[in-house]
Every structure is written in C-alpha cells, then in structure tokens.
C-alpha cells in the first residue's frame, strides 16, 4: 500500500494523481493531517478531491492538541525557525502514529519538489522520482518506539524534478481544479496563516474574514502570553501590534520578514 501525504496544495495533489495513475485506488491511502487551523477553503477542496476522484482521504488529528492555537497556548510560545513544534506535534506525530498502526503501508509519497527552494535543491536535487529513501530519515525527533515501528517504510518523491508550471499544467490536464487559495494570493497551502509564512501569505490571509479573524486570535494570544509573563512573539522580529500595522498598510510589498519553509507541512 502507498500512503500519499495530502495537504490540499498543488504538489501533494499532483503526487496523489500520479499514485492513482499507477496503482488501483485500493492500494492508495491519501492522508491529510489536520492542524485544526486550516482554511475552510482547504477543507472544502479536500471534499472536492474526494468527490472528483471517488476516493476517501483519511483525516488525522493530533491526539494531544486540539489545534495550532491550543498547542501554542500550552507551549507558551509561538513556533519559529528553530522551534517548529507545531509541525512536530500536529503533523509529524499523528502521521507517524497512523503509519505505525498500518503495517500494510510500504511507501510514503510526498509532494516535494527540488526546485521549490535552494534548500530543497540542495537536499533533494540528486533524487529522481524513482528513488526511495528511509522515511524516518525525514521524520527527525520521533520517539524511539514510534521510530522503530516505521523504520521499514520507504519515502518517495514522485514529482521531485517537476517545475511549478508542470504541476499546474498536470492538474489542468487531469481536469482537477487547483485549491482556490492560489488565486487569492497564496503561494502555499497550510495553516491559515502559517506562523512561519512570509508577509505575502499573511497579507493574503488578512484579506478574508476568516483569515483576519484567525490573525486577530493569534495577536490576542500573544497578548495573553505576555500578560502571563512569557516572551510570546508571533514573528521573530514582529510582535502582534507591529504586524497588524503592516497588514493594514495597503502598499507594503515584498517579504519584510523571513519566510521559513516547513518540510512537512509543505507536503
Ligand atoms: S503550516 Fe506552519 S504553522 Fe502550521 S504546522 Fe506547519 S509550520 Fe506550523
């Protein structure tokens, strides 16, 4: 059996389509790991994929944390470059637990492309779509017991050498819509907003009622943490107030704060 990690983004959707082309549906298990903080547009898109492709997408959630907000609240800090606890707790662990409970799964397919960034080029640039490697190699920090249970799993990146253009073209050829978030200014699909995302993602998120409400909740949480004496800061160099000012400024372009790429959430 092949597990395909699906996020609702273009790359993982293309990866899912490749899997469904190569194998009968019964051999493909699409898995979406829900942080509880995704856009309603993404949830609707997953429903669309299920209907369109006549498949069922397994939805997983952390058994410990209800959603991203709860996780931040209990950790008493926001995730950042060196502290990606959100990915670990909300994505990596639930996925590993599911994989450990399904020994029939032999391979995990991920929608990672080398041309996405310099870092990915460096890491995956030598791989071909046919290469496989140990899945636990990418799942760093897993508890030893869990690691042991999934150490047999191979990972594969079937679209590792594709360009972004090829991905969008492939979806079109297959008659599959792309997640509408791409047409609303987003370049990636994940938490809404992803705390590690760049200004472009935050600004696109700010434009919708749902996104604005989520951002205001994060700013409120930052305030709460500070009042409790914790040094909560939404972004490394931007606190909630400063961020809010930036989001309200219509003419701010480019990325004023660094965007961190998230290996796992990207899939
Ligand atoms: S999408 Fe962003 S905020 Fe959400 S779990 Fe991934 S890195 Fe964390």
From TrEMBL:
SUPFAM superfamilies: Adenine nucleotide alpha hydrolases-like. Residues 2-195 form the Phosphoadenosine phosphosulphate reductase domain. InterPro entries: PAPS_reduct_dom, Rossmann-like_a/b/a_fold, Sulfate_adenylyltrnsfr_sub2. Gene3D superfamilies: HUPs (3.40.50.620). Pfam families: PAPS_reduct. GO terms for molecular function: catalytic activity. This is Phosphoadenosine phosphosulfate reductase. It comes from Hydrogenobacter thermophilus (strain DSM 6534 / IAM 12695 / TK-6).
